[in-house]
Design brief:
It is a single chain. The chain is α+β, with helices and mostly antiparallel strands and 270 residues long. The protein has a single domain (41-256), classed as outer membrane lipoprotein receptor (LolB), chain A. The chain contains 5 helices and 12 strands. A 12-stranded mixed beta sheet has the order 7-8-9-10-11-1-2-3-4-5-6-12, covered by helices on one side. It is globular, with a radius of gyration of 25 Å.
Length: 270
């Protein structure tokens, strides 16, 4: 009725303009209503968290990209691939290979073994507890970065949402032919995006973390290539047997098992 009334103004020359203004207002109200009805980003994040945490055995393959900014302000990207096999609450095998490292980690609930094929050596240390405790120990005690591990903890939602100051549901996107919800979050020092598969298996398909406090805003990107759940891991899947001739390393040598090249020696040519 309001649209009809507005368009019946005559003799003033204002009818077309009034019609446009009222139509624009109506469309804005419709858009606001649709946005209010759509699930927000945190709802999709919670759905993904609940699904992932309910899976006892998960097998994943992935590609990852790590950007660095050189002293000359050149942005470089280093790429690696890997696989993860985990069995809750306390079993893990993770393998990552790139241009500068070929590393496998084994955790059997009591001990961590990390083998660097490129170094032909391994490090071991005791770590009794759950996978959550392992991830914390690797980060804080040994300086091993595991950006994708937050997706696999026992309660991903609480970990991921901590520190979030803004959350947005961007819309739909497609990752490797799979339709996903595209979610964007802001923390104080990072922005991060997550693509979650649409449907009854809301698995994470892609994660992008942007560092806002570093000049050039480098990013870390993780893309899930395959995701399998259920089944029983093969016997010995989480047991490490040192290869013949491999030397034992001190835990601090883990710093050399990185996906980045070693620093260039002083005076090296550019």
């Amino acid at each position: 009725m309001k649209l009809e009334t507005a368009t019946t103004v005559s003799g003033t020359g204002r009818a077309p303009r009034t019609r446009k203004l009222v139509l624009a207002a109506a469309l804005a109200l419709i858009a606001q209503g649709a946005q209010a009805q759509a699930p927000d980003a945190k709802a999709f994040l919670k759905s993904m968290s609940d699904y992932v945490s309910s899976q006892k055995t998960i097998e994943v393959s992935f590609d990852s990209d790590l950007e660095v900014i050189t002293p000359d302000l050149e942005k470089l990207q280093f790429t690696s691939s890997g696989e993860v096999l985990m069995s809750r609450p306390d079993k893990l095998r993770a393998h990552r290979v790139g241009g500068y490292a070929d590393v496998t980690l084994y955790f059997n609930g009591k001990q961590v073994s990390i083998y660097g094929k490129n170094l032909d050596g391994y490090a071991q240390f005791d770590a009794t507890g759950t996978l959550d405790q392992l991830f914390d120990a690797l980060r804080s005690g040994h300086g091993v970065a595991l950006p994708g591990a937050d997706l696999l903890v026992s309660n991903p939602y609480d970990v991921l949402v901590a520190g979030v100051i803004e959350a947005k549901n961007i819309g739909r996107g497609v990752i490797d032919g799979v339709e996903c919800e595209h979610l964007a979050f802001r923390n104080f020092d990072t922005d991060w995006q997550l693509w979650v598969e649409v449907g009854d298996k809301p698995i994470p398909r892609k994660l992008v973390i942007t560092s806002k406090t570093v000049n050039g805003a480098p990013q870390y990107t993780l893309r899930v290539k395959s995701w399998k759940t259920g089944g029983t891991p093969p016997a010995g899947a989480f047991t490490f047997t040192p290869p013949a001739g491999a030397g034992k390393l001190a835990p601090e040598a883990l710093i050399n098992l990185d996906e980045l090249p070693p620093p260039a020696p002083a005076g090296a040519s550019k």
